[in-house]
Amino acid sequence: MKKAAPQNTSRPEEIVQQYLQFLDGHLDDLVQGKATQMLQLRQIAAALYISHYHLTDTVKQLLGHHPCHFYDQKIILKAKEMLAETSLPVSEIALTLTYDPSNFSKFFKKLTGQTPGDYRKAQLKG
User: How many angstroms separate the CA atoms of 108 and 122, rounded?
Assistant: First the structure.
């Protein structure tokens, strides 16, 4: 069930909010095993009842980055959460998030500057 946007929220702001909330829910579904595949941007747009182009244009206009940027950021946040709060092997976290483990490590390092294992070690020390 969709939540109604507050009256003072513009349609573009509503789209961005729905997109970001959708990403959170989808990543939670992956972690909980309710979903087994990472959705593509066009599939997310369809679930939000808008075109891929409209979603892309709206997010870029309001937030200054392509929607994939925020998708990647949310994947990294979920991975960090799993690395810090579980003892799951990095390879299992990668597979849960639908990544090949070696590609996941490269992706994680590219966005964070450290490997998933190094991130976990740093969290354990802190």
Answer: 15
- How far lies 119's CA from each of 85, 105, 115, in Å? 12, 11, 6
How would you classify residue 105: left for phi > 0, otherwise alpha for psi between -120 and 50, otherwise beta?
alpha
Q: What is the dihedral of CA 27, 94, 52, 49, to 10 degrees?
A: -30
State how far Cα 19 lies from the chain centre: 10
The structure's pTM equals: 0.89
Q: What is the separation, in whole angstroms, between the first and last Cα of the chain?
A: 40
Tokens of 15: 């789209």
**One digit per residue, pLDDT tens: the chain, 126 residues?**
455 555 688 999 999 999 999 999 999 999 999 999 999 999 999 999 999 999 999 999 999 999 999 999 999 999 999 999 999 999 999 999 999 999 999 999 999 999 999 999 999 887
Give the tokens for residue 111: 């966005």
Candidates 107, 108, 117, 112; CA nearest to 83 is: 117
Both tokens of 55, joined, read 């979603």
